[in-house]
Amino acid sequence: MDRPLVVSPAPHIHGGASVHRLMYDVLLALIPAYLVSVWMFGWGALYVTALSVASCVGFEYLIQRFVLKNKPTLCDGSAVITGVLLAFNVPSNLPPLLLVAGALVAIGVGKMTFGGLGQNIFNPALVGRVFLLISFPVPMTSWPVPQGFHTGVLDAVTGATPLGMVREGLASGESMSSIMANLPDYLDLLVGKMAGSTGEVSSLALLLGGIFLLLRRTITWHIPVSVLVTMALFTGVMHLAHPGQYASPVFHLLTGGALLGALFMATDYVTSPMTPRGMLVYGAGIGVITVLIRLFGAYPEGMSFAILIMNAFVPLLNRYIRPVRFGEEVRHG
Amino acid sequence: MIKTFPKGGIHPQDHKLSATSEVVPLALPEVVTLPVSQHIGVPATVIVKPGDVVRTGQVIAESAEFISASIHSPVSGVVVRTDDFVEPSGLRRTAVLIRREGDDWVEEVDRSPELVESFSMSPMEIRSRIARSGIVGLGGATFPAQVKLAFDPRKKVEVLIINAVECEPFLTCDHRLMLEKGPEILTGIRILMHALQVERAVVGIEENKPDAIAHLRALAAPGPGIQIQPLHMKYPQGSEKQLIKAITGREVPSMKLPIEVGAVVFNVATVFAVYEAVQKNKPLVDRVITVTGPEVARPGNFLVRIGTPISALIEAVGGMPRDTAKVIAGGPMMGKAVKRLDAPVTKGTSGLLLLPERLSYREEASPCVRCGRCVSVCVMGLEPYLLAALTNKQMFERAEGEGIVDCVECGSCQWTCPSHRPLLDFIRLGKVTVNKRIRARAAKI
C-alpha cells in the first residue's frame, strides 16, 4: 500500500442529485415561457430578464462579499432563478431603476436578511414583486400589449390584463358575456396573446416546463395540482352559482399567472412545506386565497399575495403536518 | 403478485457485476484472525491459549450468555496469539490468531457433499445445535441465530420470513447461494419451520434475480407451506421491518421485535448455515463473500474461511485496481470502510467492494434547501433533516420525541440529498446519545 485508504461512514454512494442541477432544471423549464414572452413582448422581454438577472446576481455577490463577508455561492444558480422569476412577474416595460430596486429588495430583503439560500421564509422574487406593486402601482400595472419587436421598450402600448378587464367591466356594470366577448379567446390565452407580466402569459409554455420538471422529478405534483384543483373548484362553484358575475374556472386558470405561480413560484423548495401532505394543504391555501383576492379583494390578481401569505404558514405546517411514522398505525392484514 | 413496502425508499443502480460468477472456494489462508466479537451481544471468552493445537471446527471461544455466539477454528493449526488486534474499522479488539497447518477437521462433521433432506431433531435439539454451531445472522446484522428461536412462549409465530432480498448494490453472494444450494436452503427452511412450529414460510426475493425466483419456486412446488415471493426492486427492502411490511402488510412497532407481529426473519445465507449445522454437524467456519467493484478485473463470489485476511480476497479477483482508494466491507449503502487490508473477514462480512478514487470521496455539503427529499425517502416516516439539525444543536430530548432511535441507518436520506449533507452522520451521533439517555432512565427505575 503506497497510500492510506479512505475511511468514511456509510453510505458510500450518492444518487447524484445536486442543488445546482435542480436549479438548472428549473431554468431549462422556464425557457419555453421565455421564448413566448420574447415573441409577445420583443425587446422588453429581453431587457427586463437580462437586467433583472444581472441585478439579482450582482446584489447577491455584493452582499455576500461585503456585508455578510462569506464565500459567494453564485454557482448554485438560485440568484439567477430569482432574477428570471422577478422579470417574469413584472411588466416588460418597467423602468430600469424600479427593476433594480425590486431586485435589491428581492435578494437583499427577501433572501439575504434571513441568512441566504435555504433560510428565507418568503419567496424572494415575490417579495421583490410585491414591493414594487405596492410602492409603484402605476408602472407595475401598465402592461404592454403583445406586439413582438414592433415596438420599443418604454414606449410600448399598454393595456389591462384579462382579469383586470373583467374587474373593470363588472365595476362599470357590463355583463359578463359582453366582457368576455372583448377578451382574447381561450386559444389566445393558452398561447399567451394577452397583456400581462413578462413570463406569465403563455399557459401552454409554462405547462410544458412544468411537465418537464415533474418528469425530471425536480418537483412533485402535490403543490401544483393542489393549487390548480382548488382554484378550479372554487371558481367553478362560483361560476355555476352566478355565471353572470364570475368567470369560468378555465379562464381563471389561464390568466393572472396562475400557472407560473402554481408550477414555478409555489414549488420553491425553500419556502414550501417538507411533507407531501403539508404541500397539499399549502397548495389548497394558495388556491383559496388567490380566488378570494381575485373575486372579492382589491386587486384583480392574487397569486403573488396568496403564495407569500402561505409562505408565512410553512413553518407552522412543518410543525404540525408530520409524516406518518412507521409502526404508528399497526394494521393486521 | 410482486410486492414491496409502500413508504419511502430509493432506487440505486444495482451493479450486480458478479451475478453470473459461480462460487469458488478460496485457497486456505496461512493465518486466520478471529475476533471474539463477530456478533451482536456479549463477546465470547477465549478457551484456547498460545501453543494449543486446534482442528478445523473446534470451539476456540464461547460464552454462557444468552445473547452471544461461540467461535470455531476455521482451519487446523497452532494458536499463535490470543490478544488485541486492530479490526477493519481501526479499533483494537481481542482476537485469536491461528497459524494454519493443513485442514484437519474434527470428526463429528460430515464433510460429504450429499444432500440430506430428512431430519428428526426436536425443536429444542435444533436450537441447541444452532447455538453450538456459532451461527449468527449472515445478512450483516450478526444477531445470534438461536436467540431468534427462543422467544416469549406467549407470543405466536405465524410466518417464517426468509430474507433473500439482497437489496445492497453490487452484492451477489445470496443470489449465487440460492442458485447453487437451492435444495439445501429449502431443507434449512423446513428445519427452521419445525424449530419454530410454524406452518408457513415466505422467501422474499427482489425481481432482479428472476433465475433464483424460478429455481426456488420449482424446488418448493411439491411441498406445502413454502412460498417464494417476488419483490419490486427498492432499497432498503432487506431491512427487517420493511421486508415484513412488504410481505405481510404488518408494521413492527417502534423498539419492538418482529415476533410482535408474528414474524421471525432469517437471512438466506443463515438458512444455509442452519442446514449445514443441523444436517452435517458443521459449525459456522466459512461463508460466501462477493468481491467486486467498478474497476475490479474479475469480480466474483468466494467460499471463504472466517478470519481470512481481506488482502487474500483482493488477490483472488486479480488484485487491487490501481486507483482504488476505498475498500468497503459490505455493500455501498451500509458497509463499513476498511482501514487495513490485513484485517480479517468476519461472520458478518457479505462482500468486499473496491471503489476507485473518483467514487471514494464525498462531495462538499452545501446549505439545506428544504426540498423535503429526505423526508419522502425515509422508510421509517422520520424527518432526517430535522433529526440532523436537532443533533447538531444537541437537542436530544426533542430528537428522542421525533423518533431518532427508529432510524434503521439505511442511508437513503443522505443518498438522495441534493445538498450532499451528511445527514446520517449526524443522526447516528444523535442516536448514540439518545440511546444512552434511554438506558440511563431505564436503569433508574
A few lines on this structure:
The complex is a heterodimer of chains A (333) and B (445). Chain A is mostly helical.
Question: What would you say this structure looks like, in words?
Answer:
The complex is a heterodimer of chains A (333) and B (445). Chain A folds into two domains: 19-139, no CATH class; 162-320, no CATH class. Chain A starts with 18 loop residues before the first helix and ends in a 13-residue tail after the last helix. Chain A is mainly α. A two-stranded antiparallel sheet of chain A has the order 1-2. The mean pLDDT of chain A is 91. Chain A has helices at 19-41, 43-67, 78-88, 96-109, 124-135, 137-140, 162-171, 176-182, 186-191, 203-215, 222-241, 249-254, 258-265, 276-296, 303-320, and strands at residues 143-144, 158-159. Chain A has 15 helices and two strands. Chain B is an alpha/beta fold. In chain B, helix 1 packs across helix 4. The longest helix of chain B is centred in the last third of the chain and has 22 residues, at 423-444. In chain B, the strands form four sheets. A six-stranded mixed beta sheet of chain B has the order 1-15-14-18-16-17. In chain B, strands 2, 4, 7, 8 and 9 form a five-stranded antiparallel beta sheet that branches. The mean pLDDT of chain B is 93. Chain B contains 13 helices and 18 strands. Chain B is globular, with a radius of gyration of 21 Å.
Question: What order do the helices and strands come in, and which of them pair?
Answer:
The complex is a heterodimer of chains A (333) and B (445).
Chain A: H1 19-41, H2 43-67, H3 78-88, H4 96-109, H5 124-135, H6 137-140, E1 143-144, E2 158-159, H7 162-171, H8 176-182, H9 186-191, H10 203-215, H11 222-241, H12 249-254, H13 258-265, H14 276-296, H15 303-320
Helix pairs in contact in A: 1-2, 1-3, 1-10, 2-3, 2-4, 3-4, 3-5, 4-5, 5-15, 10-13, 11-13, 11-14, 14-15
Chain B: E1 23-25, E2 31-35, E3 45-46, E4 53-54, E5 59-62, E6 71-72, E7 77-81, E8 84-86, E9 92-100, H1 123-132, H2 145-148, E10 159-163, H3 173-180, H4 182-196, E11 201-206, H5 210-220, E12 226-231, H6 240-248, E13 263-267, H7 268-280, E14 286-292, E15 300-305, H8 310-316, E16 324-329, E17 336-337, E18 351-356, H9 373-377, H10 384-392, H11 396-401, H12 412-416, H13 423-444
Parallel strand pairs in B: 1-15, 10-11, 10-13, 11-12, 14-18
Antiparallel strand pairs in B: 2-9, 3-5, 4-7, 5-6, 7-9, 8-9, 14-15, 16-17, 16-18
Helix pairs in contact in B: 1-4, 3-5, 4-7, 10-13
